Amino acid sequence: MSMTSSFVSPSGSQLCEAEEFLAAHPEVEAIDIMVHDSNGIGRGKIIRRHELLSVYKNGRPIPISIMGLDVCSDDVHETGLTWDHGDGDLLGWPIPNSLKLLHNTSPARAEVLLSLYELDGRPMSSDPRHALVRQVQAFADRGLHPAGAFELEFFLLSQDRDGLGKIQPAAAIVDGQTSRSTDVYSIDFMQGFLPLFNDIYAAAEKAGIKAETVISEFAPGQYEITIDYRENVLAAADDLVRLKRIVRAQARAHGIDACFMAKPMADHPGSGMHFHVSVQDDQGQNIFAEQDDEEWNATLLHAIGGLRDTMAESMLICAPHLNSWRRFASQSYAPMSTTWGVNNRSVALRIPSGDKRARRIEHRPSGVDANPYLVGAMVLAGILHGIDAKSDAGPITTGNGYDAAADPDMPPDWRSAIQRAKESAFLKSALGEDMHRTFVAVKEAEYNRVQQIISEVDFDLYLHRI
Fold this sequence. Notes:
By secondary structure, the protein is an alpha+beta fold.
């Protein structure tokens, strides 16, 4: 029991969590504290052991401009989060139960996730996690509770380029073998990476993440780790950002680069971040499950319809970078239209087969480079939109979803997606006006940065031909 005088943390964190952790782990010398910005990048500080209790008592000052940075860590003034506020400090408060040991650190370290709050305790409205909190609360106000899990796909790459300067798959840790082919679902090839996977699982256990199946995916050097389904989608999003950091850190410890680009290899499928979601009522019943002899639950169909209705204007959340759009190619396991189907991986909204009591929607458009907090907020808002509007799910897709007619409303590229998002009343509501403004401003700044770069492709195509 804490002997410290009472206080109120706006995040719901408790001082006793830090006190008990420090007592149980005298070996810990430092703690990583971090918030996640609009790109899902963890930003923060490394504090010493003696500073931790102060974070739980008083919060930790964090510059407001942290939430207005682009992917290269430059200020985006159009977010209104730099000089408009004098780049003042807000307070980062710990997310309850997020103080965990880090694996394979010497001397021993821990980490704790923070959310940003105004000095008066109000949630900072450009913090992506608060956008998801708002949507979870919107469900709770109706007596509903979304549950879910994110899948994590990634590449393990060599830290050295090949003779042509291109990236290449990492050599196996055990015997140095390198895959140049698609070893999809190969068990034998994965044996060479067991020391790394063992470290990932050990680190996940320390972080309280139930990391489950690992498979070799559909490209050389590509893998997927599944994560246990969570009754609270906030915990599911926290799991995803932490597991990405775990994979990157443990890969680095083995001399390997973990890559979370959506499409690092031109001739192979990219990496997705499929989001599985279901909804329970106050009695614990799945509101998507069919009743008696009905073919499909009406609420499930409305939810699918809502996600289809809002997908075109939400694609910037799913594909936030230029590279994200290279992932969308025919028969590449990345959906290209607002299709839905059962047990079908060529559609955007997949309904897995199996026990109807566990009925859920697998939302497949997002790349692994997307921010899970914003993806979660957007998907939940789309589901509520569909339920409220009684949206029509439209025809079910059977067979090859890539044969379906292209949806003319879907943005064809990054620039179009930015414009659609900028004009979207739905996204403003789903994310909140401040988060929407921040996200779109950051994406516009990144687009302008990319447009100014003269790439090697330009020289290859035009230098000696025009």
